[in-house]
Design a protein that fits this description.
The chain is of the alpha/beta class. 29% of the residues lie in helices and 22% in strands. A five-stranded parallel sheet has the order 4-3-2-1-5. The longest helix has 14 residues. The protein is globular, with a radius of gyration of 13 Å. The chain starts with a strand and ends with a strand.
């Protein structure tokens, strides 16, 4: 059984994205295949060198760096959302694959869950 978790929330200002990330880590910790797709404002989670301390929060970059340790099979970013938010492949954290979300991508997973 595989699960795609879609995070479409900005990384700061709401806990929905962090809760979805925690859910993904929990699935992977119990040997359930899980992948992450960031779309809409959610692609900002993947921006390198965030300065979250300026808003009194910890950066999500460190959380995402733990994904391979937990066995997360893929971290993907919506290509068009990245373009909309001015993110190039070089400005994303390591290990992110740019994708064009659609039915073909969603059919690869048994379950899909959306943050927010």
């Amino acid at each position: 059984m595989s699960t795609l978790i879609v995070i479409d929330q900005a990384p700061y200002g709401s806990w929905a994205g962090r809760e979805a990330l925690d859910m993904t880590f929990s699935l992977a910790a119990f040997d359930q295949e899980a992948a992450l797709l960031f779309t809409g404002p959610g692609v900002n989670w993947l921006r390198k060198a965030q300065q979250a301390s300026e808003i009194g929060q910890k950066t999500v970059e460190k959380n995402l760096a733990a994904a391979p340790v937990f066995g997360i099979e893929a971290i993907m970013a919506d290509r068009s959302a990245c373009a909309r938010y001015g993110l190039s492949e070089a400005s994303l954290i390591a290990g992110v694959a740019l994708v064009d979300p659609g039915p073909d991508l969603y059919r690869q997973y048994d379950h899909t869950a959306f943050a927010g």
